[in-house]
């Protein structure tokens, strides 16, 4: 037996993402954000997207391009404080924003990736984030039902990949990437380096290949990936 | 292994399409892999935490830390990955497992599967079988057509505790290949030397026959 | 800053485990089973234990010693088919056995480790394993409530550890270990090798040190860890 | 930083005991670490996926993939580990975080914390703050005693949307160290040069005073 090859071009990897699709995007700030895949999503132009991402990046970076192009109808996120456009669009009612506690967003995505219906938590129980959500008692203690999140497409930034789609991440660029890489019907990974099959140690793979559909090697690391000099 | 069982296992191997992620249960299903070409592109999954199972190894060449879910000493292939038990079943439940082949105590004409408990006699526990049966995109059973006493394993209804309801798509036995359809058991192929009358007799529920010639394996 | 040292003796690591404690034990068959820690638990003799482990090992191995010594009142597990003593004790009513679907046991342990109340799943919905469990509907689909599991003590087998308690696992010896290492009030890891601080690459740590309380270096790898020649 | 704020931060550093796992929020809390001895045994956690934060680095020495949750370029120490966002908050929610220090818009006398939303004005989102506030074993607030307009941040009740209820144990401000007790705010220490009258005036809820001399910082 050998494992199948999933390397492809960026155009083919993203082809056919439909209007109205739900798109998960990895990253926490700059590290782990798949800037190159996001540019291709802007170029291909799918409209009315629901985007699930920890944050909205900063002006002229990552998710901000999708906001500028008007492709995003809804953003499920935890913190958009570094993106003035996102806050303005939200305040003007032109962007629907759903805030989650950060670890709960992580768990909801993971639950989708794990084929669960949701999780039970007491996080945010005394806050407005809990409003309108189902609750349930276990042994007399009340929990909030947080539903699983899945997406049509996940855009992932990896450090290294092999041709089967095994991925690793480096430092704090890991964040939401391995969770989202489990939780979408089509998982597309950009990798700084694509190795021959067997190039990653089986013990040190962070995302196993069966979760990944397409692997795209980055031909350059653009300025967006670099140190932010504020 | 009997000749008919061997042909059944070889026939079952044709269910595996290139590029699939496949979990092969303990027993007959494990043998299926021996009938694939050496360079066939497939990812074999085992629920104890490996995608990309390589050949089984004899004890003197085995790694004490590398087994499949049945306890056999296995190996890796280029591109294998290890993961924990939560990730392993995340893969199964979220639809990344294209195919599983499982053993059975009983299969009903509605595709119900019973393969983990014989009350009062043998209750080893379900292991990972429930999730494999319920969530693999296609579930195939490999089994003898009858139990050791000669009683049919294919029945109108399962009498044993269920593993999962309505999960089985196709059954391979030493006597036949049978699909589960909305109308119940439907014969696809029969084993060489097994007559339709013998097959009907050994099947505990109505068996619809295809029109025209029935292929053999 | 430096990180604190958690290495200790096996006697101290397990000291004071109370009668009636709940003990999680890693491993799937031989790989990942902390055989040495189990022997010390037998030696120290805590009674009336609830043990949570994927399986019951085999005769004269691992959990079987705890069954033979009569220390286990209850076993939460997925499969005990290779341990005739476990099946006999269960059939005689001398051992309470709670079966779980294997991935659901993994998720229940993980939920405990993640500070959740439980998870929602449709696994086993048509089986006797679902009997008596709460259900809940999301968008018209019914889910079973599977409650989180936590333990007083987790016994973990690692490949390598550093003094802070960062752990890695090898091959299929990982299995339940990283999940249980998050889910107990006292987490005790035996390691085949204990490295100086910084000996593990920060990207390849499987269990982060903050989850681990005690690290015990194995001075020998006994026969129980070896290839099983049936 | 003003002298009083600097002394407050230095005083807050004494809350960190050897062996703790600690998360320091953006702003003043981040400065606390500068007041610990270089070889102090503590594990600093950041919710974007690192246990064992090392010194902050200038851009020319920074790693583009290594930031803390506030976006500062940081480094590792021997024994650091990286992990994903689910594991990072698993650590927080399951009780492995001994202490967090957070900023505040408002703190109530019941220990309620508001620090993520000013409706209609500023709604950046909660980030990881809710889980830190709700699940760290001890929650300490570091803040100016009043807002820019001079209004008290310590109040009988929070008027802003809550981050978490009853979570705050102790507040460090540029004017005082104040505990949250079943009886409300209780003065522990006051800043040098700040009179009890000034302090009472700047606090938006009753402040109980200790008997005897009140230490200063």
Automatic annotation (TrEMBL), chains A, C:
The protein's Enzyme Commission number: 2.8.3.8
Keyword terms, alphabetized: Transferase
PROSITE patterns (UniProt xref): COA_TRANSF_1
Residue stretches in coiled coil: none
UniProt entry tagged with the keyword Transferase: yes
EC primary class: transferase
Molecular-function annotations in GO: acetate CoA-transferase activity
Alphabetical list of Gene3D superfamilies matching this protein: Glutaconate Coenzyme A-transferase
Family: Belongs to the 3-oxoacid CoA-transferase subunit A family.
NCBIfam families according to UniProt: pcaI_scoA_fam
Protein name as it appears in the record: Acetate CoA-transferase subunit alpha
TrEMBL record, chains B, D:
Pfam families for this protein: CoA_trans (PF01144)
Coiled coil: none
EC numbers on record: 2.8.3.5
Domain of life from the UniProt record: Bacteria
Keywords for this protein: Transferase
Transmembrane annotation, as ranges: none
The UniProt record lists the keyword Heme: no
InterPro entries to which the protein is assigned, alphabetical: 3-oxoacid_CoA-transf_B (IPR012791), CoA_trans_fam_I (IPR004165), NagB/RpiA_transferase-like (IPR037171)
GO molecular function, one term: succinyl-CoA:3-oxo-acid CoA-transferase activity
NCBIfam families: pcaJ_scoB_fam
Family to which the UniProt record says this protein belongs: Belongs to the 3-oxoacid CoA-transferase subunit B family.
Protein name: Putative succinyl-CoA:3-ketoacid coenzyme A transferase subunit B
Organism: Thalassovita gelatinovora
